[in-house]
UniProtKB/TrEMBL annotation:
It comes from Pseudofrankia asymbiotica. It is found in: Cell membrane. Pfam families: Polysacc_synt. The keyword Disulfide bond does not apply. The keyword Repressor does not apply. GO terms for cellular component: plasma membrane. This is Polysaccharide biosynthesis protein. It is a multi-pass membrane protein.
Length: 456
């Protein structure tokens, strides 16, 4: 057996792309539903002000993790998928690097807490969230290694965190004990549960301890650095509005905006599933052959991921735009009526946001992380300009308009890059999709074997 065969993770040797996407999307729907349910409970029991405060803490925690991990999570997934033989060393080295960054980010967040929130109780909750950063960072090495090796196990670990979080929040709400600080504790506890499960499942997928290797660390740092540039820009595109509003407008207005954003991002998990599966699959394909049947299969995967995520995003936002008034008034009450107008302003850009995320992952799997960064940073610059222009004049509505416009511009840029990456012109896409549909499902979801023949 050749070395290339050893490098192919199980998910790339068996099963089809759409089958893997289906399982991942189903998990994402469940995770999204649990997250939405948890958000609704927080909104109902904490009120607009408490919900806004929690949104600020969670947003800063996410921002710190995305920036502070320096793209190493994507690097672990990409490197494990490309080189299964050294996967254990990759996980061990990546975890050591992530833990060091986690302690650094946690210390900075604890020190900066009074600059972000001014209430004493909220400062304590903010510091508690950042004290858990080493746990968040360390667990990510196991989680992202599973994405490259066992998608089923990866989906299990993804589901455990929101299940644990939602169960804890519901229990506190029923006991009338839910506060912002306790909600943060629930979040940390659920991340700990996820870390334990990921460690056990990763040990099964990749037996052995592995060892720290400088060469692996340098490889992770190179890919991670380029990924970080694109990740930071995507994060700014999606959270800069909320981070800015947190220091400009009242917490209640932030709460309304947070609810609108939560509704607008509901399709994202399903759309992102196409990119989640495509990234390690494309990375593994790059490690075997660069031309021939594998290249053709990669082209089909890219077109399927981008096209399907776009269609699903547009359809879901269309349905949500119709049912949103009923959901908001029945579930949250009249106090959240302003969230409706904000959601409708976000809707055009939200329809393509999930496709943007899937396309980002597709390009990362093809090794084009810097191209992702260029597109996302263009959107970021546009976001900053529009926020600076619109928010001072029309408030939170301006933030919604700015974000929606930036998502749309970024989508156009990413689509152009993705099509060029696989040698497809925009004009030929409709004809290609028509041929794919006529050939049937089996023809384009199977993966070519190392000898060039398709495997079911």
């Amino acid at each position: 057996m050749t070395r290339a065969k050893h490098r192919l993770p199980r998910v790339h040797r068996r099963g089809g792309y759409l089958a893997s996407v289906g399982a991942t999307a189903a998990t994402s729907v469940a995770v999204s539903g649990l997250g939405a349910a948890g958000g609704l409970i927080l909104a109902r029991y904490l009120g607009p002000s408490g919900r806004g405060t929690y949104a600020v803490i969670a947003s800063y925690m996410l921002a710190a993790a995305t920036i502070g991990e320096c793209g190493l999570t994507y690097a672990v997934c990409y490197t494990v998928a490309r080189n299964r033989a050294d996967a254990r060393d990759t996980v061990r080295t990546g975890m050591a690097m992530l833990l060091g960054l986690g302690f650094l980010v946690g210390a900075v967040g604890i020190a900066a807490a009074p600059l972000v929130v001014d209430d004493h109780a909220m400062v304590s909750a903010f510091r508690l969230a950042f004290a858990a950063q080493p746990l968040v960072f360390g667990a990510a090495a196991w989680v992202f290694a599973l994405q490259a090796t066992r998608l089923g196990s990866w989906n299990v670990t993804r589901a455990l965190q929101p299940i644990g979080y939602s169960a804890a929040v519901v229990a506190l709400a029923l006991a009338d004990l839910l506060t912002v600080e306790r909600a943060v504790l629930c979040l940390i506890g659920s991340i700990g549960l996820q870390a334990v499960a990921a460690a056990v499942l990763c040990r099964q997928a990749l037996p052995g301890r592995g060892r720290l290797r400088r060469s692996v660390g340098r490889e992770l740092a190179r890919y991670g650095g380029a990924s970080m540039i694109s990740s930071v820009s995507y994060l700014l595109n999606t959270t800069l509005d909320l981070l800015l509003l947190a220091v400009i407008v009242q917490p209640a207005q932030v709460g309304h905006y947070a609810v609108a954003v939560s509704m607008a991002t509901l399709p994202q998990p399903v759309c992102a599933a196409f990119g989640n599966v495509a990234m390690p699959r494309l990375a593994a394909g790059r490690a075997t052959v660069a031309h021939g049947p594998a290249a053709a299969a990669d082209r089909r995967v890219v077109l399927a991921a981008v096209g399907a995520s776009l269609v699903i995003g547009v359809l879901c936002i269309g349905v949500l735009s119709v049912v949103a008034p009923l959901v908001v008034h029945v579930v949250l009450g009249p106090a959240y009526a302003p969230s409706l107008e904000l959601f409708w302003l976000l809707a055009p850009g939200a329809a393509v946001l999930g496709c943007n995320r899937a396309t980002d992952d597709v390009l990362r799997g093809l090794g084009r992380t810097l191209a992702v960064a260029r597109c996302e940073w263009t959107g970021t610059v546009l976001t900053v300009v529009l926020l600076a222009t619109l928010v001072p004049t029309i408030g939170v509505a301006g933030a919604a308009i700015a974000s929606s416009a930036a998502y749309l511009v970024t989508f156009v840029l990413l689509l152009q890059v993705a099509l060029r990456a696989v040698g497809v012109t925009a004009r030929s896409v409709p004809a290609r999709l028509h041929r794919v549909t006529r050939r049937g499902r089996k023809d384009w979801i199977t993966v070519p074997s190392e000898s060039g023949r398709g495997n079911a």
